[in-house]
Automatic annotation (TrEMBL):
It comes from Catenuloplanes nepalensis. Residues 30-312 form the ABC transmembrane type-1 domain. This is ATP-binding cassette subfamily C protein. GO terms for molecular function: ATP binding. Residues 335-578 form the ABC transporter domain. It is a multi-pass membrane protein.
Length: 589
């Protein structure tokens, strides 16, 4: 199943989102604009004064006049420096505030994404957005952003200064505008798609790395390190090649800009010379015009040097806005589950991933209240897919799951998560106190409730060995739990959450042979009296179930109790005999 990436906002949606955020901070936005405009305007003083100074020197105005102009230039430089620093600080504060709010919205939407959406997108895309994309935008807003805004203001105000000196000098400066426009029109259509693709490739690289690291033990067990390293290297090479291509395009863009600067400055100098010779302007005015146009080199150069960062930030911002703009989950109608003879019913006429082959076909599965049903079958039979549909994680492409007669989509994501809990072999231990990790399932649980849940899954032994008991920090940076202990933690969460239905998708697979029996007992204790669907990793789990469903190539081929299926001598009996055999491949399916 290939990943379906989360949405990316269009340029219009991105700018509209930013504008809306800035409008929410009118005072800070106005202060930032005022300071940046004042800083840029103060930079116009020195070239104008130098022009006047040239005229005074030609007119032999005296040393006192020259000194006064020098004082004005020095004062203007100090004021410009103070205003620039203040403007950058306020603009950075404004940008950080806007970005913080956007990050909060991205996190909120990410945490409330429908399980099916996250399942299709995979974790790599979301991790890349929450990590790499946020870092790129943060760098642009706090560092490059204020400088870019200041550079743009300088360009606009300097062009205005040229026209103030003489409209003909202003038109001479504008001669460079078509060359700049042509350079931009050449560059933008070529660069923007590359940057958007670069962010996607970064997400694919993160997905490959996350998959390899998360399943490191399995990778080592099957000796597939080279395959995973090659996949990461392939994605990294794709990102590198894109970066080199963009750099080449950017270099050619820089050459076009240099040509534009040459054309503009030459035009201003020639027109200035002709106007001075015609006594239309003074030498000082022509000098000021040349200095004004030369003053454009630094802001234009800054824009050129940082345009790469701006384009990357634009692509990253569009990806963040794409997630932040996802519609909130609809509030489902107040649907009451009915009294029904079946607690959970799954009907799938056919299910396939995108355009792939059918994974499930003609499946009808009904679990009675309190019934314990096991799914068995060879790898690829469709067990995990059926479990995902039953848990509401995967929407059936042609079918539905119903809880006590009500379709899961009518109950809504929040209600489904309260009613149906999925425990898989992929267990995450959150960094922090052990008690806080367990309270994720029930925030109002006290220490006695937590200890009772841990005792029920057989975790009391290792709990007593922890240095600070329930206050011990676990997870990253804290006490490391074994795979079996982490699974007991997940089962204790299940007890605290107390859902009506539990779906165990190979939940005890990571225990290994040594801890398998203890973890099986923990799973049985956690699901006692609860409607339970188990994807059996070992056939002994199925043997203890009330009913066994045998899947083969996406179809139910047998069902019944352990003893009845053995007597029937069909597919399950063959699996059981193979499992019992010393040459049957061990104790796992």
């Amino acid at each position: 199943m290939s990943a379906v990436l989360l949405p990316t906002a269009t340029a219009r949606q991105t700018w509209a989102e930013l504008a809306a955020e800035f409008k929410r901070l009118p005072g800070l936005s106005a202060a930032a604009i005022a300071l940046l405009v004042a800083a840029s305007a103060s930079g116009l003083v020195a070239p104008w004064v130098l022009g006047r100074l040239v005229d005074d020197v030609i007119a032999d105005a005296g040393t006192g006049r020259v000194v006064r102009w020098a004082v004005v230039i020095a004062s203007a430089a100090v004021v410009a420096g103070v205003l620039t620093a203040a403007g950058a600080a306020v603009a950075a504060r404004l940008g950080e505030t806007v970005l913080a709010r956007l990050r909060e919205r991205v996190l909120d939407r990410a945490l409330h994404l429908p399980s099916a959406t996250l399942e299709r997108a995979g974790t790599g895309d979301l991790v890349a957005r929450a990590g790499d994309d946020v870092a790129v935008v943060t760098n642009a807003i706090t560092g490059v952003g204020p400088l870019m805004v200041g550079a743009l203001l300088t360009i606009v105000l300097t062009a205005g200064g040229l026209f103030t000196l003489d409209w003909r000098l202003g038109l001479a400066g504008l001669v460079a505008a078509p060359a700049y426009v042509l350079a931009m029109r050449w560059y933008l259509p070529r660069s923007v798609p590359y940057y958007a693709r670069e962010r996607i490739v970064t997400g694919e690289r993160a997905q490959a790395m996350a998959g390899a690291l998360h399943g490191a033990a399995t990778v080592r067990a099957y000796g597939t390190e080279d395959t995973h390293v090659a996949r990461i290297a392939d994605r990294s090479a794709a990102a590198r090649d894109l970066s080199l291509t963009v750099f080449g395009v950017f270099t050619r863009f820089g050459l076009r800009i240099n040509r534009s600067e040459f054309v503009g400055l030459s035009s201003v100098l020639i027109v200035g010379f002709l106007l001075v010779r015609a006594d239309a302007i003074t030498v000082g005015a022509a000098t000021a015009a040349a200095l004004y146009f030369h003053r454009l080199f630094n802001p234009i150069g800054l824009i050129l040097m940082e345009f790469d960062s701006v384009m990357q930030a634009r692509a990253s911002l569009a990806r963040l806005v794409g997630v932040a703009s996802l519609p909130a989950l609809p509030v489902p109608a107040d649907v009451h589950a009915q009294d029904h003879e079946a607690a959970l019913v799954v009907s799938v006429r056919e299910h396939r991933y995108q355009d792939g082959p059918a994974v499930l076909s003609d499946v009808e599965l009904a679990l009675a209240p309190g019934e314990r049903v096991a799914l068995v079958g060879a790898s690829g039979a469709g067990k995990s897919t059926l479990a995902g549909i039953a848990a509401g994680i995967i929407p059936a492409s042609d079918g539905a799951a119903r809880l006590r007669g009500v379709p899961l989509e009518d109950l809504g994501e929040v209600r489904v998560r309260k009613e149906i809990a999925l425990v898989s072999q992929e267990v995450h231990v959150f960094a922090g106190p052990l008690a806080d990790d367990l309270r994720l399932a029930r925030p109002d649980a006290d220490d006695a409730d937590i200890e009772k849940a841990l005792d029920r899954v057989g975790a009391t032994g290792w709990l007593r060995t922890l240095p600070d008991g329930l206050a011990t920090h676990v997870g990253e940076g804290g006490h490391r739990l074994t795979a079996a202990q982490a699974q007991q933690l997940a089962l204790a969460r299940l007890i605290l959450a107390d859902p009506a239905v539990a779906v165990l998708d190979e939940a005890t697979a990571e225990a290994g042979s040594a801890g398998a029996r203890d973890l099986d007992r923990a799973a049985a204790a956690a699901t006692e009296g609860r409607t339970t669907l188990i994807v059996a990793h070992r056939l002994v789990q199925a043997a203890d179930a009330d009913r066994i469903i045998v899947l083969d190539h996406g179809r139910i081929v047998e069902q019944g109790t352990h003893s009845a299926l053995l007597t029937a001598g069909g597919r399950y009996a063959h699996l059981w005999q193979s499992w019992q055999s010393p040459y049957g491949g061990g104790d796992e399916l």
